[in-house]
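Support reply, case 0932

Customer input (verbatim):
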Amino acid sequence: MKFPSTAAWIAGLTVCIAPVASYAQAPDSATPTAPAPTVMAQTPESVAARYAAAMQRRDWKAGAALMHPDALQQLKKMFRPLVFAVPNLELGKMFFNVRTMAEFDRLSNAQAFERLMTAVTKINPEIGAALATSKSQIIGHVLEGDDTAHVVYRMTSKVEGISVTKMAVMPLKKSGATWGGLLTGDIEGMAAALSRMTAPQTAPRPPAKKAPPPPAARSQRR
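Our regenerated output:
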């Protein structure tokens, strides 16, 4: 299975899985990125930067640790009805590497996230390539109430050999003393697309037969 519109996927899905490469540019791949100090986890920008550095390395376990617990729970709940809706599609095996619903239920919320993101980049290698080459700049954040922040950033990446630059937003929610990433409409759209794929197909109704004209109309035609 290959998702349509690779460019749209990378521009949108990376808002969730790799929103910002760093404060100014992607780190040198030859130099391991040192863990950020605990104090850095107190601002939405610093969490977004750590999250993106993990995603650039395709370190989904580290990325899951920076997601908000509510978002991880939402993701697993969203995909649960779909993984075995159509047995011959093997969506559970394709996206989560499980063969039964019991195996899926035994996954932690973080493991479900890790396996989904691993599968997405495996199915569409262009996404992984774009993450590895992405460079982004954090502009700042906008607060929504007391517990939600939207980090605004400018991202440049290569999509199928073409350089793409866009402004995007990563949502985060307060989680104790720090912040955690939220799901975006792209992940929800992916679940909706899979839901349409797995929905029972109904046969189209035959066109209604045209009723014959009343007797009076037939006599007038003569």
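We compared this against your earlier run and they match. Two observations from our side: Residues 7 and 162 are 9 Å apart (CA to CA). The domain at 6-201 is CATH 3.10.450 (Nuclear Transport Factor 2; Chain: A,). Please reopen the case if you see a mismatch on your end.
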